[in-house]
């Protein structure tokens, strides 16, 4: 007998992602996350190895899609043939992404959420076909990353996230392709997650870069600051390829809303 899950908010114009969406999601993530200060800090060799950036995001989102404790939701819009010219990221991929026609419906934004530990919804948003689909996303060789910078921020950020969000819905990733900014996609994606948390009487958490633009979206939705950390290089040599010599994480929380 199939397990019965609690009702979820309607998706409206949004939808659940599937494993077949991963090649497109990886392109959207590469294009959108490029403008995050964390991207410049971590992926300092992106221009030399852009294909590794796309492959890494493909694995990240494939893992979320296949995880019973996660939810990946996408926003769609009409395809713009010049979209690659609207981002400074280099989009190089051999992930067999579909060729789209002008005006065709495509994924332009994505959010990945982690469920609270012990949630009744674990497994609710995973498609059996996605679990059994043989598509392999190996993450590439990570040549675009600086291991030192990557480990420096993720180690402390994940530890702090665990401390601050013990029983929360956590927004792990949120991005929109720059060609489709200012159309409300990010806000719709976040609002769906907040509606889910509201139904479950659960708080929500998200972290973002203090110097980035994302915090304004979260503040507008009612998130408040609960923590802040910074990571700096001990030695920094300035050249054209160097990322910023520091990066931070601003931790935000959304309280339980009344029904």
What does it look like?
There is one protein chain. This protein is α+β, with helices and mostly antiparallel strands. The chain has one domain: Gcn5-related N-acetyltransferase (GNAT) (Aminopeptidase, 3-Layer(aba) Sandwich), CATH 3.40.630.30. It has 7 helices and 7 strands; from the N terminus they run E-H-H-H-E-E-H-H-E-H-E-H-E-E. The chain has helices at 22-33, 37-42, 50-66, 128-132, 147-164, 185-199, 214-220; strands at residues 15-16, 70-78, 105-114, 169-176, 204-208, 224-232, 246-254. The chain has a 7-stranded mixed beta sheet with strand order 1-2-3-4-5-7-6, sandwiched between helices. Helix 6 links the parallel strand 4 and strand 5. Helix 1 packs across helix 3 (50-66). Mean pLDDT is 92; it is low at 235-241.
Topology:
Layout: E1 15-16, H1 22-33, H2 37-42, H3 50-66, E2 70-78, E3 105-114, H4 128-132, H5 147-164, E4 169-176, H6 185-199, E5 204-208, H7 214-220, E6 224-232, E7 246-254
Parallel strand pairs: 4-5
Antiparallel strand pairs: 1-2, 2-3, 3-4, 5-7, 6-7
Helix pairs in contact: 1-3
